[in-house]
Amino acid sequence: MRTAVITFPASNCDRDAAVALRKVTGVKPVMVWHRDTELPKDIEFVIIPGGFSYGDYLRCGAMASRSPIVADLVKKAKKGLAIAGFCNGFQVLTEAGLLPGALMRNKGLKFVCRPEKLEIINNTSRYTAKYNDQSEVIYPVAHHDGNYYANKETLNKIEGQGQVIFRYKDNPNGSVNDIAGICNEGGNVFGMMPHPERAIDPMHGGTDGIKLFKSIIESI
Amino acid sequence: MSKKVKITPEVVAEHGLSEEEYEVILDRLGREPNINELGIFSVMWSEHCSYKSSRRHLSKFLTKGDRVIQGPGENAGVIDIDDGDAIIFKMESHNHPSYIEPYQGAATGVGGIMRDVFTMGARPIALMNALRFGEHSHWKTKQLVNGVVAGIGGYGNCVGVPTVGGETNFHKGYNGNILVNAMCVGLARTDKVFYSAAKGVGNPIFYVGSKTGRDGIHGATMASAEFDDNSEEKRPTVQVGDPFTEKLLIEACLELMETDAIIAIQDMGAAGLTSSSIEMADKGGVGVLINLDDVPQREEGMTPYEMMLSESQERMLMVIKPGKEKLAYEIFEKWELDVALIGKTTDTGRLVLKHKKKKVCDIPIAPLADDAPNLNRPYKVPKSLPIINSSDIHETQDYNDALLRIMGSPDICSKRWIWEQYDRHVMTDTLDSSQSGGDAAIIRIHNKNKAVAITTDCTPRYVQADPYQGGKQCVAETWRNLTCVGADPIAITDCLNFGNPEREDIMGQFVGAIEGMNEACRAFDYPVVSGNVSLYNETNGVAIPPTPAVGGVGLIPDLEYFSSISGAKEGDTLIMIGETNGWLGSSIYLREILRREDGAPPPVDLDVEKINGDYIRKLIRNKRVNAVHDCSDGGMAIAACELALTNNIGVHLQRSSGCPLHAWLFGEDQARYLISVEKNSVNPILTTAEDRGVKAYIVGKVGGMNIKAEGAFDLPISTVREKHENFLPELMS
Prior knowledge:
- The complex is a heterodimer of chains A (220) and B (733).
- With 220 residues, chain A is of the alpha/beta class.
- Chain A contains 5 helices and 11 strands.
- In chain B, a hairpin with a 6-residue loop joins strand 15 and strand 16.
């Protein structure tokens, strides 16, 4: 199975995402440059990695969401391509309109990096199906702008349709309804601020992240 | 500043040059310099660039060793960690700018030290920082802590290099001069290390990175003078950083380094284009011709003087192999970086600058380096403070209170508020960091079964009390910290922060500390491979406590065998490796409980350090220990508390020696390690210790949920944790 990781200028978790994909699929993902206008053929799962694309200038994820490769992702997402964005990737997905809501500056105004306990709200999603035997995971967070916001109408909709996948147990950033990760209506596009790719090795202090990758890979 | 500026004695003095130095310039040029040339001599001969007060003393350091590929003199030091892998590292100060503009000063300190490392072909894999602030209650401290921490995080987080450890102290001695020392560790291949010597004539010189602006002009000169009440007016000389450009520079340079296009490369750090071009030319024995009109400029109408002295950040200079220009352009344009061909190497041995078709500078390069002042400043090494007998030091009547006060004191408290603002996990090879409260950070070598251990240390109060013993102690503590995680200590970098070297006593602190450090380096075969000196850390004549910060790097050759402060288990026995005599002079107990800062610091016996450390490493390799923690600030009581907090399990200490109880608990005798071991390992450990001449004593056990010491304190972990965790958040709220 072919997977891909997008690299923007100042993406900095692109290698980490690639390591995780390789570990789970056994195959190196294709690294795709932000200026490419089209994904390589037969890509079935794409990660938009964490980092500070375009230095977070203007707004986190805003400039990356206007890049040539994201235009192609938007087209393919509508046809059902599986796309996950972690941290900055989540910001890019909301800026691109592929996921509802927006990420604002953390409530405490400071960058926060710590292992975070998350509650799995929906373990029937394509990204969480493998977590059938557990209701909580620990993934690290590391962000300055992870305060998720959506208006009431949108919130009601995503909460009602099972699009809220993860919630923080101890909200680090002020996110509304403690939301940590969501998917789109089709369930193929997923974004979260925490970093599952930083929890895939016992030496990381935990391997809770592996099942997230396994879930989506096996769903394809 | 136009070239018509008349060179008066006032202008010379404003450039920080002495009359004698100016005479040398006149002699070497055979004429009066123009303002551009004067500016260039001024920065090259500044304390910051020329090390004129320190050079002769630094040359005493042990700088060679089996694993040393490159010692001091390049952008950073290079060591061999087997399998064709090299570690490139250095620590550097950014003190003066950080005091004036904390966010940008600290951020650009991080940026600068990273450039020193990737310039040599290494991908940065870890950042550390050693910070010293004024008294916590001083009106300026909170603002400085906020700005410095945000600046370090803002830069390192964006670039995507984990900030994995460091240390933070508070003392009134830093009220007017904070210290921001940043360390970067990078990974390269031993056959792909890049140097700065610009070899060959007629080779193109490329400028890459941010455009040159008017920021940071004379930053190096600022760092070579004392502060006074008007220092904040120096804000315009503080540079502004852009981590986004730095990240692109790292990727672009590493990509170009994969090819064979680069002859020499140098970052533009202090004194910008001036020092980078001169260093490259001097090391390569060539001349340089630069056409300043081709330098990418951020502002209109910049003069040659401004361009040469600007310290705009995120800029690199490189000499490219003829014929490889197109390749270089392609890579830099891919990363959307400004790139320009600004000159070439020549056979003249001179630095020639052209601007608007006129020659605006023409000076011989050799004197800029060779004739740089090398002062033999008078010095008087201060005598050690007198030894205080521990039985003459008042015993606390309330041990619970004393323990809580120390655990919640500015230097000992949890620094979570700081390190939670740093991304410690990016690159996913961080195996241990500040998060554990352990002794050294552990960073795995990507895709390999080995790791490097990294630590920074300095105990300024010891150096203040006795520069020589204090100097030894700084090096010994890093060696001990690396040992605690099972690493073989390899080499150090240092950042020597002192006051005004023109004062005999300050110069004496400097010389004494170096002597002590060097002795420790030699005893451990633990060379200095890079470093920096920061002098003139004084305000209105008051100097900082002498602070020779040391950054140590070690190798964990097999990830099957390493250790940390984590891992202590219910039922474990606590053993203290090393003798406890209860040394309270210059201790945390004396300072925090009795408000006294006196007494000789604990002596460091390097032979004992060596056998104790070697034994600890052997125990770790034999998997005999569950947890190891260095016994340092605050003594055994604090080491035991930290072990208990990290593992969330109680400890129970029982006195093992005849020294007074408060001295036994809080004494800061050196060469000690607290280890937590299974019951059935106790006897073998004690027996082997005896055979090796290592002192080892059972000092307590692990279990329950209280931290207690027989006849002294008894507190729930939660109470101690609260005190330990709350200090900084409360201070900063």
